[in-house]
From TrEMBL, chain A:
Subcellular location: Chromosome
PANTHER family named among the record's database cross-references: UV-STIMULATED SCAFFOLD PROTEIN A
Keyword tRNA processing in record: no
Keywords (A to Z) from UniProt: Chromosome, Coiled coil, DNA damage, DNA repair, Metal-binding, Zinc, Zinc-finger
Organism, scientific name: Phascolomyces articulosus
Highest classification ranks of the organism: Eukaryota, Fungi, Fungi incertae sedis, Mucoromycota, Mucoromycotina
Protein name, UniProt field: UV-stimulated scaffold protein A C-terminal domain-containing protein
Chief localization: nucleus
Any one of the GO BP annotations: response to UV
Automatic annotation (TrEMBL), chain B:
Annotated Acidic residues bias: 376-389
Organismal lineage: Eukaryota, Fungi, Fungi incertae sedis, Mucoromycota, Mucoromycotina
Key words, A-Z: DNA damage, DNA repair, Repeat, WD repeat
DNA damage listed as a keyword: yes
Protein name as annotated: DNA excision repair protein ERCC-8
GO biological process: proteasome-mediated ubiquitin-dependent protein catabolic process; protein polyubiquitination; transcription-coupled nucleotide-excision repair
Per-repeat ranges for WD: 94-130, 180-215, 239-280
Span list, region Disordered: 365-389
Gene Ontology CC annotations of this record: Cul4A-RING E3 ubiquitin ligase complex; nucleotide-excision repair complex
């Protein structure tokens, strides 16, 4: 037996059985047949490899094996002898027995069983006289109720298979053409849609009020009607109260009635003469988006969804793109509906058209700069009455008249703006206004640019003191034992060093309103959990549409207001340490590799490849279903979390601590 | 074959040697018989098969359904050349055993009588012609096996039941004569010595194999020891034949060797006279997990080197070379645990019964040259021309 032929057979058989397709690859099959035809020894080898494949715990492989067996059994007498010798095992591997069930995936296993039974029935008619094992197997299957009466015959199975393959073959070029067409059309069309969407977005920015901190109104929250989570509402109320209180009206004797309308946006934004143009444009965009773009996208998405292509990659990419755009359009349409924009009625349409033409003649399109239609609330307010001395780190402190920082800061700023040179000590010394006129050297100016601006404190008082005196009263004090001190009454250096330090209270800033997870639940609702970054059940919180389907796509993020608000929630602090750590390890790796390279060069040795083992063999593309992959559930995700080394470490630490405490307590009682 | 014939005619090969050569060749080429089949008649497992030794024509089979069937193995073939062996007589539904038949044996000198033991606590003696029980012994517990001496002038049936004593039932009087005590726990297998008519071998659940002389008052002669320990006491408590129960006993064709099958999945061969372990290693490929009697058999006296056929739990019959312990073949074909094998020594045929109700016929491969006349299409390759490269 030639070893190369043996290897060739092994490769071919593995290849043909591990494609995961319903039909055997005709080219491979042909080459296997031609090799087997040459000699019976080749058939022996092929049978061995075939049986190895048949034993693999995968229904798809077994299905392909049975298909191959059908081909060879029909042709080779040697194969018949070999197979019938192993018939009991063959039956138990392909039909299953009392102790042995068929391997996953289940739906393929059912097909496999059906197919084998049909095959055995056919073989029995043809070969049972010569090969007793087939007759025994048939009897066994019949008497154990495995062979049911209305079993599909082999011919019907084959014709089914052929039908399926034929249909697929016929439709393949049609689908391909359609895909090409859609991708071409959509390319042009998408740019138009994007333009329209951007225009509408611009209109929203113009129309909608802004808040003091400059953040956009939370459209998402408004659309949901989720009043509590709306930052706008709470802040609005706060401001209102503060405003009242700052004017001295805040008192329990007054009764305040706050009416919250259902559609706050429509309440605040009205169509007026000023913004008529904007509204007009918005209406136009809305009409197009709703009547034309949305419909066209729906048609495309439907026809793409129906396609059964051999490689779905292109289709999937296109489909995803279209779906994203569609989600955007729907989003925008909802927004404009919130603003009270509706499709013009039939009667009004004619006049509208006239107006439009007239307007088109009169006005050019101008990029309207985004500005707020609403006056900002002034910041200069009286201090809140509720507390006498707010703490330094509290935001209310800035409004305190007795508090120096804001004024100082603004002063220095204003001085800088005037362009005159200022004393650098003004910030560090606290009150540098008097000496501010002193002329400064250019390098000091440089330093001043870098110098941090900090509030005045005790530490700054001691900052440049080299010898601080204490007990400057002149009265001598004598200690009971040590008597009168003879020192210089100076604060020692290390103490001075300590005095120069400053305590800073760090206040972690919790985001005010967390976004809900909104992943679809089995009950049909959306997940109401509000977590910082990740929901323990549904993973990372991502923007989702009203059905809970994620709408994220990397290139659209910038246009999407919802996702931008998400990124503002994500605290950068949480990601920073891990990045830093990665950087560190990378650095150390680089260093290690540098040293290694040097050493190897000196020793005239080839470099050791680190990633040699990690590199996986490139397996041929296969459609085999991965049977080992476990289904990912919320349970497994939680399990993974719990099994993480970090968590384990924490638990261990806690246990250790508890143990030590316990033993300490015990020891305390033993005396 | 023809060269052997020629040599025999020339006188350079003695007839005995010729027979031996030919039967050995046949015995080593066993395969599932393509023409002969035993009709599937049992419902439930086939527990025991026996071929009578007088003319090797009739076979009895006992099943898990409590029924016993008699077959004529010389059934003429059908018109299409197939031999379908149907039972010629069966135990009627009323008279069958209430529970599974465990072992069967023919009366050694006549086909008119056979003996069966069953889980319904009885041993029955049957009249083959009327298929009715002539005599019933009630043993008050499950009978694992029974045995009748193939050579003895006495007509004693030894029984191994769920009790620690062996009872000897006398066919002449219809009552049990005496009992042999010595085993701990139930007795799984008994066998009479094929040479000495008063010597009995028995294997119990305690892993011992005991040799008895039924004439003596202190009947137990010795207990076999797998390690061949040198001690003066042949009945030492430490003597163990197997690590677990012994559920099969059979003799080699020259009657000098005793083969025991243990639940520890070991096969051991002993010198039947001295009781010493011959230390042949049969490997660990054999499966035996159930406390049922296992009917193994050794090929006929003309086959040399002799073969040992052992039924196995993994749905196969294992064929060992008896003297070396080498696994020669696996006879695959059954779809359930194989419970018994029986040889038809004259024709080198083998019958095996299994849990899937089927009795399989294994026969030597036909000479291809002799069957040239009836060429069947399924014998040929059917490659099409287009499959050439």
């Amino acid at each position: 037996m030639d070893i190369t032929i043996s290897n060739q057979i092994a490769k071919l058989i593995q290849q043909i059985t591990e494609t995961g397709e319903w039909n055997l690859d005709p080219d491979d099959l042909k080459s296997i047949k031609s090799i087997c035809k040459r000699s019976d020894a080749n058939v022996d080898v092929a049978f061995d490899y075939w049986f190895v494949q048949l034993r693999k715990e995968h229904a798809q492989i077994r299905y392909s094996c049975v298909q191959l067996a059908e081909q060879l059994f029909q042709r080779s007498h040697r194969f018949r002898i070999l197979l019938t010798d192993e018939f009991p095992l063959f039956i138990s591997l392909t039909v299953g027995g009392r102790q042995r069930s068929l391997p996953p995936p289940q739906q393929v296993a059912a097909k496999l069983k059906e197919y084998t039974l049909a095959l055995v029935t056919t073989w029995r008619e043809k070969f049972a006289n010569k090969f007793r094992p087939i007759a025994i197997a048939y009897d066994y299957l019949q008497h154990n109720g495995i062979l049911v009466a209305n079993q599909p015959t082999l011919d019907s199975l084959h014709s089914q298979n052929e039908d399926r393959a034929n249909r697929q073959n016929r439709m393949q070029p049609v689908y391909e053409r359609r895909l090409q067409q859609i991708s071409n059309e959509s390319e042009e069309y998408l740019s138009i849609i994007h333009e329209n969407l951007q225009q509408m977005q611009g209109c929203f920015e113009i129309l909608l009020p802004k808040y003091d901190d400059g953040s956009d109104i939370d459209f998402e929250a408004l659309m949901k009607g989720d009043i509590e989570s709306s930052k706008a509402m709470t802040q609005d109320q706060n401001n209102y109260k503060e405003e009242l209180r700052s004017h001295g009206l805040g008192s329990s004797r007054y009764k305040l009635e706050i009416v919250i309308s259902k559609n706050p946006v429509a309440d605040e934004v009205h169509e007026s003469k000023e913004n008529e143009v904007v509204f007009e444009q918005l209406r136009e965009g809305y009409k197009v988006a709703r009547n034309k773009h949305n419909k066209q996208l729906t048609i495309w998405i439907n026809s793409l969804g129906r396609m059964e292509l051999q490689n779905n990659e292109n289709r999937n990419i296109l489909l995803k793109k279209l779906l994203d755009v569609k989600a955007d359009i729907i989003d925008t349409i909802r927004k404009s509906e919130l603003l009270g924009i509706q499709l013009p009625s039939k009667e009004g349409e004619a006049s509208d058209d006239n107006d439009d033409e007239y307007l088109d003649e009169l006005f050019e399109e101008i990029d309207v700069p985004s500005s707020s239609t609403r006056a900002r609330l002034s910041r200069s307010k009286l201090p809140p009455a509720q507390r006498i001395f707010p703490l330094a780190f509290e935001p209310g402190m800035e409004d305190d008249v007795t508090y120096i920082r804001t004024r100082l800061f603004s002063e220095t700023e204003s001085i800088d703006e005037q362009g005159s040179s200022k004393d650098g000590n003004s910030s560090s010394k606290g009150k540098g206004k008097g000496k501010g006129k002193a002329i400064m050297t250019p390098d000091k100016e440089e330093l001043l640019k870098k110098a941090p601006v900090v509030e005045w404190g005790e530490d700054l008082y001691y900052w440049d003191k080299s010898d601080a005196q204490f007990n400057t009263s002149g009265i001598e004090r004598s200690h009971r034992f040590m008597g009168v001190g003879e020192g210089t009454n100076e604060i020692p250096d290390q103490l001075l060093e300590k005095l120069r330090k400053r305590t800073i209270y760090y206040k972690p800033q919790m985001p005010q309103n967390l976004k809900a997870c909104r992943a679809p639940l089995r009950s049909g609702k959306l997940c109401p959990r509000r977590d910082l970054v990740t929901c323990p059940f549904h993973g990372k919180i991502i923007p989702r549409n009203e059905y809970g389907i994620p709408v994220n796509s990397n290139e659209e993020v910038d246009n999407n207001p919802s996702s931008s608000s998400l990124s503002s929630i994500n605290p950068s602090a949480s990601t920073a340490p891990s990045e830093q750590k990665q950087q560190e390890t990378k650095d150390s790796n680089d260093l290690w590799q540098d040293i290694e390279r040097d050493v190897m060069q000196q020793a005239n040795q080839p470099l050791i490849e680190l990633n040699k083992k990690k590199r996986k063999r490139n397996k041929p593309q296969s459609n085999l279903i991965d049977v080992r992959k476990k289904k990912e559930t919320s349970y497994t995700r939680l399990q993974k979390k719990l099994d993480a080394p970090q968590t384990r470490q924490n638990v261990e630490d806690a246990q250790d601590y508890e143990r030590t405490m316990k033993s300490r307590d015990q020891q305390m009682n033993m005396w | 074959m023809y060269s052997f014939l020629k040599k025999r005619e020339h006188g350079s090969l003695r007839p005995r040697q010729f027979v031996r050569a030919e039967s050995t060749k046949r015995a080593y080429s066993l395969q599932l018989s393509p023409r002969k089949e035993v009709t599937r008649i049992h419902r439930g497992s086939v527990q025991s098969i026996k071929v009578e030794n007088v003319e090797q024509r009739y076979m009895i089979s006992g099943g898990g359904d409590g029924r016993i069937h008699v077959y004529d193995l010389n059934t003429p073939p059908d018109s299409d050349g197939h031999v379908r062996i149907n039972p010629v007589a069966s135990v009627s539904r009323e008279q069958r055993h209430r529970y599974a038949v465990t072992t069967l044996s023919w009366f050694p000198f006549d086909t008119g009588m056979f003996i069966s033991s069953s889980n319904d606590n009885s041993i029955r003696i049957w009249d083959t012609n009327s298929m009715t029980p002539a005599c019933v012994f009630d043993l008050e517990s499950h009978v694992h096996c029974q045995a009748i001496s193939p050579v003895a002038s006495h007509c004693l049936v030894a029984s191994g039941a769920d009790e620690p004593r062996i009872r000897l039932c006398d066919l002449k009087s219809g009552a049990s004569t005496h009992s042999l005590t010595g085993h701990n726990g139930s007795i799984l297998s008994v066998a009479w010595s094929p040479r000495q008519e008063h010597v009995l071998y028995s294997g119990g659940v305690d892993g011992t194999v005991r040799v008895w002389d039924i004439r003596r008052a202190a009947a137990c002669l010795m207990s076999l020891d797998q390690h061949n320990t040198d001690n003066s006491d042949p009945l030492a408590d430490t003597n163990k034949a197997h690590g677990a129960g012994v559920n099969g006993l059979c003799f080699s064709s020259d009657n000098e060797r005793l083969i025991t099958l243990g639940l520890d999945e070991k096969i051991r061969m002993w010198d039947a006279y001295t009781g010493r372990n011959t230390l042949v290693n049969y490997g660990s490929l054999w499966r035996n997990r159930f406390q049922w009697y296992m009917e193994a058999t050794v090929s006929g006296s003309d086959v040399w080197p002799p073969l040992l056929y052992v039924p196995s739990d993994d749905q196969q019959v294992l064929v060992y070379e008896l003297n070396t312990g080498r696994l020669s073949r696996r006879l695959k074909g059954a779809y359930g645990r194989v419970t018994c094998v029986e040889k038809r020594a004259g024709l080198q045929e083998l019958y095996s019964g299994s849990m899937d109700c089927e009795i399989l016929v294994w026969e030597p491969e036909e000479d291809r040259s002799s069957s040239l006349d009836d060429e069947h299409p399924s014998d040929e390759d059917a490659w099409s021309e287009s499959e050439e490269e």
